[in-house]
Amino acid sequence: MAENSGNEVVRDVAKWEWSQLWKTEDWWAIWLGVVILLVGMAIFLPNPPEGLKEKIAKANTTMEQEAARAPFKTIEWYKASDSKGKHKASGSDIGKKIKSFTNKPHGWKANPLDSFMMSESAAAAKKAKAEEKYEQAKAKEAEALSAANTAQGAAAATNFSDESLNKEARASISKWRDANYKAGKAKGKTKVKGYNQIWSLIGLMIVMAIFFGIGLQVMGKSFGQFVVGFAFVFLIAVLAYFAAGQGTMKQYGIGYAAWAILFGLIISNTVGTPKWVMPAVQTEYYIKTGLVLLGAEILFGKILSIGIPGIFVAWVVTPIVLVTTFWFGQKVIKIPSPTLNMTISADMSVCGVSAAIATAAACRAKKEELTLAVGLSLVFTSIMMIVMPAFIKAVGMPEVLGGAWMGGTIDATGAVAAAGAFLGEKALYTAATVKMIQNVLIGVIAFSVAVYWCARYECDPGQKVQAIEIWYRFPKFVIGFIVASIIFSLMYASMGSDVGYAMLDHGVLRGFSRLFRGWFFCLAFASIGLATDFRELKDYFKGGKPLILYVCGQSFNLVLTLTMAYIMFYLVFPEITARI
User: Fold this and answer.
1) Residues of 419-436 as b/e, b for ≥16 C-beta within 10 angstroms?
2) Is 548 exposed, middle or buried, given 0-12, 13-18 or 19+ CB atoms closer than 10 A?
């Protein structure tokens, strides 16, 4: 009898465990992320650009010949490399339709309506202005190319044996590359057409409401109530993109995340968030799904392309800063809440909001603590993405060093790319790659925090932490993040970097999953604002301890990252730096 009773208990536990696969938010985030990635693969992988492999092979042959001819990347090498980048799966007709359907509100300067609709006549006038600027940028590029050809020709005349001429050629080619990058951006702005985005936004809202609503229905919540409230949350997300698209806001780096939280906060702390909206205020549901999609973008082939220096900057500095900042908060500042301390430390040291969400789930931080950590991150990210590139230029810091420094310290991936682009192509590449390497740590940090919290804060004295407790605490969506990263990295490697770039990076990912990921994150930030009451946060600001923690931790991060980047890129592995 007792034996049968025990067996029933075991069966009940097993049943309960398996039910989590379709009854919990973390697992649904994984399944929804998988659906998006599978649909993206079904759309893009069977339809590669015409003659893709042949064109890539031709470009690679030229690049190999040029690499054997000169001790630096020649003009011909870069032109061949650029030709490969023009072949993207996202450039197909269906890719363009997907981008149009999922597109956020357009950028605007003086007329707010330009964000949602533009007549053909207005588009023609805007196109004419953009073409004029493009012609100016193209003229500067042609001038820089002429100077680069002259310098390269002088170096070639000595069979590249004169190092001073080689150095001059490298400098001239670098200037041409910067001019080429600016001309490319200017050309992109000439592709202006009339549009009315209102209907596509409504269609996107309906699709995403059904997409997330199905999961909530299975989890035992009301599909109808969610859909009704979702319209309001989606509207806040649209307004956030609208505000971030204004020219001045773009210039100062005030992105959609800050606006989404701000608009939500204004509503929740004035008239109050309506009760009928609350079923759709699903912060973690949205962002966890987005983080699974982010995992697919962490490609190990790209990580290895920048080599050991980037890995040292991201994987050695980050844990040191995290542990030191947490210790500083507990022992020196004496922050009352360890969960707040850990969430801020991870937010600041790893990669901003994504790390904060994963870490908060691992240590079970309160939603108010997560909101505070995210708010601090967004404020300092906006400041750093403007101040850091300006400082780097002012002191004449090399692009690669500046890029590595920003990639390891600026929290948000988008802000890192924007700051890197301000300095130049090399800085953009280095900054974005270092940040991508750092993003890998999201899963590692979440697991480590789960283990530490079980052992340090939730076990009775003398009791050992049980493996099952770690499993219960571990945020399951991180499994999706890690598995997606591994699978897409293997796919990328099997295809080869060039085909992978065209079909995965600029097809399934940038052409599909990343478009949805941006919306999911924006919905999450809007939900954070709508669910936050300043009265619940006031106790955390006593003595300004969270702000002191962030400032001190980020200051330590800035110094240590710059030191490590200089040592790795310029003292230990200068040959890798020379190839960037």
Assistant:
1) bbbbbbbbbbbbbbbbbb
2) middle
Number of H helices and E strands in the chain, helices first, is: 29, 2
Q: Please state, in angstroms and rounded to a whole number, the distance separating the CA atoms of residues 380 and 387.
A: 10
Hey, is 533 helix, strand or coil? coil
Contacts of 399-402 spanning 24+ positions with Cβ under 8 A: 399/423, 399/424, 399/426, 399/427, 399/430, 400/426, 400/427, 400/430, 400/569, 400/577, 400/580, 401/562, 401/565, 401/566, 401/569, 401/570, 402/427, 402/431
- Cβ atoms of 301 and 500 closer than 8 Å: yes
Which are the contacts of 336, defined by CB distance < 8 A and separation ≥ 6? none
The tokens of 414 are what?
A: 């988008």
pLDDT reported for residue 9: 36
Residues of the chain by 3-state class (helix, strand, coil), percent to 5: 80, 0, 15
Digit-coded pLDDT (tens) for 513-529:
999 999 998 998 898 88
Pairwise CA distance, residues 200 & 206, whole Å:
10
Using one digit for the tens of pLDDT, what is the confidence trace for 267-308?
Answer: 988 988 999 999 999 988 998 898 889 888 877 776 766 668
Distance, CA of 352 to CA of 360 (rounded, Å): 12
Measured in degrees and rounded to the nearest 5, phi and psi for residue 196 equal -135, 105
Tokens of 83: 């030709």
pLDDT at 112 over 80: yes
Domain limits of the chain?
197-243+256-579
DSSP secondary structure string for all residues of 197-235:
-HHHHHHHHHHHHHHHHHHHHHTTS-HHHHHHHHHHHHH
Amino acid letter, 180: N
Q: What is the pLDDT of residues 35-77, one digit of tens each?
A: 999 999 999 999 898 889 999 999 999 999 999 999 999 999 9
Transcribe 302-322 into DSSP letters.
Answer: HHHHH-HHHHHHHHTHHHHHH
Give the pLDDT confidence of 177-229 residue by residue, as tens digits: 989 989 998 998 888 888 899 999 999 999 999 999 999 999 989 999 999 99
Q: What is the pTM of this model?
A: 0.80
Token pair belonging to 570:
């310029």
Cβ atoms of 226 and 281 within 8 Å: the answer is no
Q: How many CB atoms lie within 10 A of CB 491?
A: 18
